[in-house]
Amino acid sequence: MNDWKKYENMATRELIDIFQDPCHINREEAFYVLVYRFRQDLLNFCEIRCKNFGQSFEVAEELVHSVFESYAKKPGFNIENSKGKNDDDSFLIYLIGIAKNRLVDIYRIQKKKQDGKWSDGSESLITKLPELPYTASPESKMIYKIISSLPYSHRVIYLTYIAYENAGCNLPRKLLKELRDHLNIEQSTIRGYKKEAMDKINIAKEAFRTAESEKNEIG
User: Fold this and answer.
1) Which of 153, 156, 142, 159 is nearest to 202 (CA)?
2) Rounded to 5 degrees, what are φ and ψ at 9?
3) pLDDT for res 194
4) Strand partners, 173
């Protein structure tokens, strides 16, 4: 990648032409110079924009990475239709346009999470209880034992719901259908089993904490 230095002083228009030519042998070097040349200006914009959206500096950095990644996958910049003062200004405006769209997407996802409506399609049934860490607290060990003792259907329902509800979203319809098909039960039965599992775990938690409190009072 040291070869990119040879392109460091090349005009932006030439770099774009090289990178957007799928057959050019130096596409990678041209892209690297474009990132090097425009990253800081794009980051400055993203920091201000993210701050206005209540987002952190880390989100701004991720946003910049996402913009260049998007351009790399679909290099569709048309410099002839640009409206900047010069080629550099035009390309930066183009990158900023991608950043604005990406930031709106981030905001929408966060809003959906807050409303319990977010899903990226990667959710899957949780059918196995993960191993308990050696350093787990006595209460965690007790809860783990209770979950392990649940009937299979109750355990799968509990683990699946707790995984995604804790992540701030409701279970998507696709996952609910998988749950019904996997257990061969109706949605109303799922709700009932979930409540039974939650009640059993909550009762065990309360009993454990009461016992611990009494033990401390005696001690």
Assistant:
1) 142
2) -100, 10
3) 92
4) none
> CB of 169 within 8 A of CB of 119?
yes
Q: What is the residue whose two structure tokens read 């009762």?
A: 203
Q: Residue 27 is which amino acid? A: R
Residue pair 33/10 in contact (Cβ under 8 Å)? The answer is: yes
pTM for this prediction: 0.54
pLDDT at 67: 92
Q: What three-state secondary structure class fits 169? A: strand
Token duo for residue 22: 């799928």
pLDDT score recorded for residue 147 = 92
Query: What is the rounded distance in angstroms from the CA atom of residue 102 to the CA atom of residue 64?
Result: 10
- In Å, the largest CA–CA distance within the chain is 82
Secondary element (H or E) of residue 132: none
Contacts of 160-166 with CB under 8 Å at 24 or more apart are: 160/125, 160/126, 161/194, 163/126, 164/123
So what's the pLDDT on residue 106? 74
**Which residues 6+ apart lie within 8 Å of 48 measured at CB?**
none
* Rounded Cα–Cα distance for residues 130 and 1 (Å): 43
C-alpha pair distances (Å), 26 with each of 73, 87, 156, 181: 16, 20, 52, 52
